[in-house]
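Propose amino acids for all 109 sites.
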């Protein structure tokens, strides 16, 4: 696998790369960068490892969903915003039509 990281600009571009490369796995990171009353700081980082590069998409909030994927941003009982792991995994499997695809959070042990 290459150490080169390539940032892609849309889910459609990353999806096409995943279809072309037929990877064994997909990796994601849910990032929450502190607390702010004026800005949504919840971000999803999707990473597609291939033999040529690691392709990466950053997906930011657009209110109650993420801009690129439309994955919902939920609230816990304290009003904190979050992205559910199952929402991410189900979205990727449904979009790529790959039940066999291993989808891992970067923090999975």
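Proposal:
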């Amino acid at each position: 696998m290459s150490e080169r990281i390539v940032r892609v600009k849309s889910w459609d571009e990353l999806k096409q790369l995943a279809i072309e490369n037929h990877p064994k796995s997909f990796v994601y990171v849910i990032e929450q960068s502190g607390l702010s009353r004026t800005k949504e700081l919840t971000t999803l980082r999707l990473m597609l490892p291939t033999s040529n590069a690691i392709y990466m998409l950053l997906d930011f909030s657009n209110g109650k969903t993420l801009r690129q994927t439309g994955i919902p941003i939920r609230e816990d009982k304290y009003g904190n915003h979050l992205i559910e792991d199952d929402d991410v995994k189900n979205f990727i499997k449904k979009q790529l039509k790959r039940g066999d695809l291993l989808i891992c959070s970067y923090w999975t042990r």
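The chain has a mean pLDDT of 88. The two ends are 21 Å apart (CA to CA).
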